[in-house]
Specification:
single chain; five-stranded antiparallel beta sheet; seven-stranded mixed beta sheet; 671 residues; 17% strand; 16 helices; alpha+beta; 23 strands
Length: 671
């Protein structure tokens, strides 16, 4: 339920930068010596895995020794401050409480209440009072208050747990929505009283150039009815209960703009909202059938139909008016809910399927090799029959349809197992081509010389590729799994012995986190698969395209921001000072001028190029050297400091390497 806070031993001030993580350094400062000894004592406990209460008590002795050493280091420095020791002592207090809470809850739930008062006290010491939590919005205080609230809940003090919950929402309304875990204080409290939950999908549509609201834009989240934006460009859907999915793909259209799209999230009791940017276009958005879906995303642009069927008529309606075909039958049964308790095909389920196909009057058969389960007519001319699959297979249904009098019945099989969810393709932002100055005279040596680059139009992924998007590729191809799901890998979070990736946000259910643990080769394989699926040319961005897009295009580059979208990294990206040492859902910070998220921080992003020195003169559409040993990474990550998150910073690694802070986003060439 609880995650560890960042440990900052690598920032020790007295050690030379090159040796900070490798060897002890001879020092004369007694306070620093005590601090380092306290850190080493704590780090040694990370390799201890207690299995009994006795083991846990032994571990506690080491943790108390680390606490004492850090406290003595702070006292020796008094009245001068010792910020690093203060920070590490806070992290130690929280991590000790979190480890104890999780350990007893997981291994000895019957005795957890005996130990909770101690853990609650530790959490409370880190959190402070409610005013300190709300005013500081410090992630350490927020996480500690969450831990204190969990202790209150399991101790039976529901009133105190509710108070902690209210304070967390006052301090950070989206705190629980961004935790990346299925069970937490809010879900536990809502299980007691579901009426306390309010689920909202909120957003705003903005002009990508002026950042002014687009009034009267038509917003269509997948599976929901279209809605118009208000005078401030905003829109909102409210749900009476938790929707099946908390992430929806949505499109927005308005006269005079190119159609925009993006990922929209359903938040619980939070006032967070997502943004869809529309780029002004020379021609108005066409919608020939006036069904609210622009023609460029409407699969039936001349026939009115709902968004659920991508602008085409309801397949059941079509079958009643004309002969059914395999595509209509598959589409009509796309969202059919099979009985999870049934072990095979049944007459009752076949009857529900026939009803879903629009048959109101039906007859039961025997469900044998000679007779179907059920049969009927969706109209007066055509017959539909549902059988067990060919040769009596119980894992699928066989559907015969057509004109039985003319002996032209067709056959299609529907697997009884849940059909895979539709592939969610990355949202793309069109990037107008232009000219900019690439590199920095104030940065590292490999950022020089600053040189002129001219690029053609291209598309860039609005977000980093997410776990949900990437695993759809892995499951279909049965390969290129990230390191944390690779069969036989010790880091496999389901079968391996090392849970490192779990602490960094890598779980199947964290579908909106950027995928990590993927190599350059894996990223290229994903792009090739995506190209085959869509018929469009997806690829990794070139290094020049990446920096151009991060700077905000030709116009945005003139702002000369240090980071993608501004000079205040805390507002724009996740890095070592605000990430809590883990990834975060994509789109959680402000976008840059082009509407791109997380170009600075969260995860380092692979680029297409081999790494080499910059050219000295102007270039057009550069793709880097023809060969090399390392590929380029850009953007910095949750793991590293702000300097590495600058738009000009360059990083390199061998293309086969996979790390917990390596991810990517896709680019696409115009058709």
């Amino acid at each position: 339920l609880l995650c560890a806070l960042a440990w900052r031993y690598r920032s020790l001030p007295e050690a030379p930068a090159a040796a900070a993580l490798y060897a002890p350094v001879a020092i004369d400062d007694e306070a620093v010596r005590l601090h380092n000894e306290g850190v080493r004592t704590y780090e040694n406990t990370l390799f201890q895995t207690p299995t009994t209460v006795s083991d846990w008590n032994t571990l506690q002795d080491s943790l108390r020794r680390a606490d004492t050493l850090l406290y003595r280091a702070i006292q020796l420095r008094s009245p001068q401050p010792y910020p690093l020791a203060d920070s590490n002592l806070t992290a130690l207090l929280y991590n000790t409480a979190a480890r104890g809470f999780n350990w007893f809850l997981d291994r000895m739930p019957d005795t957890v209440t005996v130990n909770l008062p101690t853990h609650r006290q530790q959490f409370a010491a880190v959190a402070g009072d409610s005013a300190e939590v709300v005013n500081s919005r410090d992630p350490r205080r927020l996480n500690a208050l969450h831990g204190r609230g969990l202790c209150d809940y399991y101790l039976g003090d529901t009133a105190a747990a509710r108070q902690a919950h209210r304070t967390l929402l006052r301090a950070e309304s989206a705190y629980f929505d961004t935790l990346g875990m299925d069970v937490h204080l809010q879900t536990l409290l809502f299980s007691i009283d579901p009426t306390q939950a309010t689920y909202r999908l909120r957003g705003v549509v903005l002009d990508a150039q002026t950042l002014r609201p687009v009034i009267g834009a038509t917003v269509t989240p997948r599976g929901l009815s279209a809605i118009q934006t208000r005078a401030d460009g905003s829109f909102q859907y409210t749900f009476a209960q938790a929707p099946p999915s908390t992430t929806l793909f949505g499109s927005a259209a308005a006269p005079g703009y190119l159609t925009g799209s993006g990922t929209l999230r359903v938040y619980t009791n939070a006032r967070m909202r997502d943004t869809i940017f529309l780029i002004p276009g020379d021609v108005p958005v066409a919608d020939r059938d006036a069904d609210g879906l622009p023609d460029d995303i409407d699969k039936c642009p001349d026939i009115k139909g709902p968004p659920k069927y991508k602008g085409c008529p309801d397949p059941v309606t079509l079958m009643r008016n004309d002969a059914p075909d395999s595509n209509l039958i598959r589409e009509a049964l796309r969202d059919f809910a099979f009985d999870p308790n049934a072990t095979g095909v049944t007459a009752e389920e076949a009857e529900r399927m026939l009803q879903a196909l629009g048959v109101e009057k039906m007859e039961r058969g025997k469900g044998t090799d000679q007779e179907p389960f059920v049969f009927g007519n969706p109209n007066n001319r055509y017959r539909v029959e549902i059988w067990a699959g060919r040769f009596g297979r119980t894992d699928r249904y066989g559907i015969q349809y057509g004109d039985s009098d003319q002996n032209n019945m067709q056959y299609v099989e529907i697997l009884r197992t849940t059909t895979p969810p539709p592939v969610v393709f990355p949202a793309m932002i069109p990037i107008p081509g232009g000219t900019f100055q690439m590199g920095s005279e104030d940065g590292e040596s490999d950022e020089k010389p600053v040189h002129q680059v001219t690029l053609s139009n291209f598309y860039m992924g609005k977000y980093e590729v997410t776990i949900g998007e990437y695993l759809a590729f892995c499951e279909e191809t049965k390969g290129n799994y990230p390191e944390w799901l690779e069969p036989g890998n010790e880091y496999n979070i389901e079968t391996g012995t090392n849970d490192y990736y779990k602490t960094k946000g890598m779980r199947r259910e964290n579908k909106n986190h950027p995928v990590t643990g993927v190599s350059w080769n894996d990223a290229v394989a994903y792009c090739q698969w995506l190209s085959r699926k869509t018929g469009q040319t997806y690829r990794l961005p070139t290094e020049a395209e990446w920096e151009y897009a991060a700077r905000g295009g030709e116009k945005g580059a003139k702002d000369k921001y240090d980071y993608a979208g501004g000079n205040e990294l805390d507002e724009l990206g996740w890095y070592d000072s605000n990430s809590g040492s883990k990834t975060h859902p994509v789109g959680g910070k402000k976008p840059n001028q082009l509407g791109l998220y997380d170009m600075s921080g969260n995860v380092w992003e692979w680029c297409a190029d081999w790494y080499d020195d910059y050219p000295s003169g102007p270039v057009n559409n550069p793709t880097g050297p023809a060969k090399g040993s390392d590929r380029v990474l850009r953007g910095g990550s949750w793991f590293i400091g702000a300097d590495y998150c600058r738009v000009a910073d360059r990083h390199t690694f061998t293309p086969v390497l996979r790390l917990s802070y390596f991810g990517f986003r896709v680019a696409r060439s115009p058709q």
